[in-house]
Amino acid sequence: MKNILITGSTGFVGSNLLNNLYNDNKIYLIIRKKKQIKNLVKKYKNVNIIFYNKVNELNKKLKNYKIDIVIHCATHYVKKHSYSDIKKLNSSNILLGNVLLDNLKVMKVKKFINFSTIWEDFNSIKDNNYNLYSAYKKGFGIILSYYEKILSTIKFYNLMISNTFGENDTRLKITTILKNNHKKNKLTVIVSKNLIMNLLNINDISTAIALIIKKNVKPGKYLLKNNKDFKINEIIEEFNKNNIKKLRIKWLSNKIIREKIYPYSNLKGWKPKQSGILDIVDTISF
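^ thats the sequence. predicted structure below, dont judge the formating
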């Protein structure tokens, strides 16, 4: 049993990791909104909550805990930012993580796992940030590298992820939009019939995290992605083939749209097993 601290436990990635790791580990959660605590404690009776209002308070509290592994999922995501987003982008994507990094030694942490985005190097072009969100993630990666240098006894893992899917996803992602529109019999407008996507099941991400926790994995930056890309029309055809009620789609073009992914290192010993086309279809059907 490990002492594992998770940030962003109410988000899509963090909540799924919490659910998978809870039974076999002692879990600590960093929470800033009081209204979230009641539901978490109700579902996870033995979870340990670290509540804070201001970062100075969090900085003091962290020194009282002994943690084996930190999994940093917390983020503030906006595809296109406005001025009002800047404070939240900085607070979630830089400041919170920096406070954690500064307390790793006193907490006696052995492994620090961070999630970032392939948009740091958009379309496979190095340092080509897609938006301000990805620029913040890139910036935190630079800070992470500094702490990696001065904290040589701690293993750091920076995991680059693309599009994810899975059950209980409430984000405005393609699988969720298709699922919700199917339920309501609404038309879904898609930019191209030949939109090519790399979709990774959250369960496969959980498998990667379990591997890093349990095995002596070499620290570094790793890419977590599906081994196969899918055309969106292939997914929709597969869905419609197996459902009486069909997805209603309006295609705007036949243009081939594919985002290239920068070739980061692969995580040795891991490969996706639950990210096939039927897994994607099942998520839309769920």
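The chain is about 40% helix and 20% strand.
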